[in-house]
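Write out this protein's structure.
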Amino acid sequence: MEKEKITEFTRRISQCNRSGLTLITYEICFVHCADAKKAYAQKEHEVFKKEVQKASECVNRLMETLNFEYEIAKELYPVYRFCRDELAMALVKNDISRVENAEKILKNLYGAFEEVSKEDYSRPLMENSEKVIAGMTYQKNNLTENYEIGNESRGFLA
Protein backbone atom coordinates (compact mmCIF):
# COMPACT_ATOMS: atom_id res chain seq x y z
CA MET A 1 0.00 0.00 0.00
CA GLU A 2 1.30 3.44 -0.90
CA LYS A 3 2.29 5.87 1.82
CA GLU A 4 -0.31 8.41 0.64
CA LYS A 5 -3.09 5.84 1.09
CA ILE A 6 -1.85 4.95 4.56
CA THR A 7 -1.88 8.64 5.53
CA GLU A 8 -5.37 9.10 4.09
CA PHE A 9 -6.74 6.05 5.92
CA THR A 10 -5.08 7.17 9.17
CA ARG A 11 -6.66 10.61 8.93
CA ARG A 12 -10.07 9.17 8.10
CA ILE A 13 -9.88 6.66 10.97
CA SER A 14 -9.17 9.46 13.44
CA GLN A 15 -12.34 11.28 12.33
CA CYS A 16 -14.85 8.45 11.75
CA ASN A 17 -17.61 6.80 13.72
CA ARG A 18 -18.32 3.06 14.03
CA SER A 19 -19.94 2.57 10.62
CA GLY A 20 -17.25 4.72 9.00
CA LEU A 21 -14.59 2.46 10.48
CA THR A 22 -16.28 -0.56 8.91
CA LEU A 23 -16.25 1.16 5.52
CA ILE A 24 -12.58 2.03 5.90
CA THR A 25 -11.78 -1.59 6.76
CA TYR A 26 -13.48 -2.67 3.54
CA GLU A 27 -11.58 -0.04 1.55
CA ILE A 28 -8.25 -1.14 3.01
CA CYS A 29 -9.13 -4.70 2.00
CA PHE A 30 -9.90 -3.54 -1.55
CA VAL A 31 -6.54 -1.75 -1.78
CA HIS A 32 -4.76 -4.94 -0.71
CA CYS A 33 -6.75 -6.98 -3.25
CA ALA A 34 -5.83 -4.52 -6.01
CA ASP A 35 -2.17 -4.65 -4.97
CA ALA A 36 -2.34 -8.47 -4.95
CA LYS A 37 -3.76 -8.51 -8.49
CA LYS A 38 -1.04 -6.12 -9.64
CA ALA A 39 1.68 -8.26 -8.04
CA TYR A 40 0.20 -11.41 -9.59
CA ALA A 41 0.26 -9.81 -13.05
CA GLN A 42 3.90 -8.82 -12.54
CA LYS A 43 4.78 -12.35 -11.30
CA GLU A 44 5.89 -11.04 -7.89
CA HIS A 45 4.82 -14.04 -5.81
CA GLU A 46 6.09 -12.77 -2.44
CA VAL A 47 4.29 -9.44 -2.81
CA PHE A 48 1.15 -11.28 -3.96
CA LYS A 49 1.32 -13.51 -0.90
CA LYS A 50 1.81 -10.56 1.47
CA GLU A 51 -1.07 -8.56 -0.02
CA VAL A 52 -3.48 -11.51 0.08
CA GLN A 53 -2.55 -12.09 3.73
CA LYS A 54 -3.23 -8.41 4.49
CA ALA A 55 -6.62 -8.64 2.74
CA SER A 56 -7.37 -11.75 4.80
CA GLU A 57 -6.48 -9.83 7.98
CA CYS A 58 -9.05 -7.19 7.00
CA VAL A 59 -11.71 -9.88 6.59
CA ASN A 60 -10.71 -11.30 9.99
CA ARG A 61 -11.14 -7.83 11.49
CA LEU A 62 -14.63 -7.60 9.98
CA MET A 63 -15.47 -11.01 11.47
CA GLU A 64 -14.16 -10.02 14.90
CA THR A 65 -16.30 -6.90 15.06
CA LEU A 66 -19.60 -8.65 14.42
CA ASN A 67 -22.11 -8.27 17.25
CA PHE A 68 -23.99 -11.57 17.46
CA GLU A 69 -26.79 -9.99 19.47
CA TYR A 70 -28.13 -8.92 16.08
CA GLU A 71 -29.49 -11.44 13.57
CA ILE A 72 -27.58 -9.89 10.64
CA ALA A 73 -24.26 -10.86 12.25
CA LYS A 74 -25.27 -14.52 12.04
CA GLU A 75 -25.85 -14.03 8.31
CA LEU A 76 -22.61 -12.10 7.70
CA TYR A 77 -20.28 -14.48 9.53
CA PRO A 78 -20.49 -17.34 6.99
CA VAL A 79 -20.06 -14.86 4.13
CA TYR A 80 -16.91 -13.43 5.71
CA ARG A 81 -15.65 -16.94 6.45
CA PHE A 82 -16.17 -17.90 2.79
CA CYS A 83 -14.24 -14.80 1.67
CA ARG A 84 -11.43 -15.61 4.09
CA ASP A 85 -11.32 -19.19 2.81
CA GLU A 86 -11.22 -17.94 -0.80
CA LEU A 87 -8.24 -15.76 0.05
CA ALA A 88 -6.53 -18.71 1.75
CA MET A 89 -7.10 -20.87 -1.34
CA ALA A 90 -5.69 -18.07 -3.49
CA LEU A 91 -2.45 -18.44 -1.55
CA VAL A 92 -2.40 -22.22 -1.65
CA LYS A 93 -3.25 -22.56 -5.34
CA ASN A 94 -1.67 -19.27 -6.48
CA ASP A 95 -5.03 -18.44 -8.08
CA ILE A 96 -6.02 -14.81 -8.64
CA SER A 97 -9.63 -15.72 -9.43
CA ARG A 98 -10.13 -16.58 -5.75
CA VAL A 99 -9.06 -13.06 -4.78
CA GLU A 100 -11.47 -11.65 -7.37
CA ASN A 101 -14.33 -13.81 -6.00
CA ALA A 102 -13.77 -12.59 -2.45
CA GLU A 103 -13.42 -8.99 -3.61
CA LYS A 104 -16.66 -9.17 -5.60
CA ILE A 105 -18.61 -10.45 -2.60
CA LEU A 106 -17.08 -7.86 -0.29
CA LYS A 107 -17.87 -5.05 -2.73
CA ASN A 108 -21.54 -6.04 -2.66
CA LEU A 109 -21.50 -5.92 1.14
CA TYR A 110 -19.62 -2.61 1.05
CA GLY A 111 -22.47 -1.03 -0.91
CA ALA A 112 -24.95 -2.07 1.77
CA PHE A 113 -22.75 -0.77 4.59
CA GLU A 114 -22.25 2.48 2.68
CA GLU A 115 -26.02 3.05 2.62
CA VAL A 116 -26.30 2.30 6.34
CA SER A 117 -23.43 4.65 7.20
CA LYS A 118 -25.23 7.57 5.55
CA GLU A 119 -27.81 7.35 8.33
CA ASP A 120 -25.29 6.99 11.17
CA TYR A 121 -24.86 10.32 12.92
CA SER A 122 -23.06 8.96 15.97
CA ARG A 123 -20.00 10.65 17.41
CA PRO A 124 -16.46 9.87 16.22
CA LEU A 125 -14.77 6.98 18.00
CA MET A 126 -11.63 9.00 18.75
CA GLU A 127 -12.77 11.97 20.81
CA ASN A 128 -9.40 13.62 21.53
CA SER A 129 -8.01 13.41 18.02
CA GLU A 130 -6.92 16.37 15.94
CA LYS A 131 -9.66 18.09 13.99
CA VAL A 132 -8.97 18.26 10.25
CA ILE A 133 -9.98 21.39 8.39
CA ALA A 134 -9.70 21.00 4.62
CA GLY A 135 -9.80 23.73 2.02
CA MET A 136 -8.96 26.81 4.08
CA THR A 137 -6.17 27.74 1.68
CA TYR A 138 -5.76 26.52 -1.84
CA GLN A 139 -2.73 25.72 -3.92
CA LYS A 140 -2.57 24.86 -7.58
CA ASN A 141 -3.74 21.24 -7.99
CA ASN A 142 -3.62 20.71 -4.24
CA LEU A 143 -6.04 20.91 -1.32
CA THR A 144 -4.44 21.98 1.93
CA GLU A 145 -5.47 20.30 5.16
CA ASN A 146 -4.85 21.98 8.50
CA TYR A 147 -4.90 20.14 11.81
CA GLU A 148 -6.39 21.83 14.86
CA ILE A 149 -5.09 20.33 18.06
CA GLY A 150 -7.50 22.09 20.46
CA ASN A 151 -6.77 20.08 23.60
CA GLU A 152 -3.05 20.00 24.36
CA SER A 153 -3.43 16.89 26.54
CA ARG A 154 -4.58 14.27 24.03
CA GLY A 155 -2.65 11.20 25.06
CA PHE A 156 -2.16 9.34 28.31
CA LEU A 157 -3.31 12.17 30.57
CA ALA A 158 -6.41 13.11 28.53
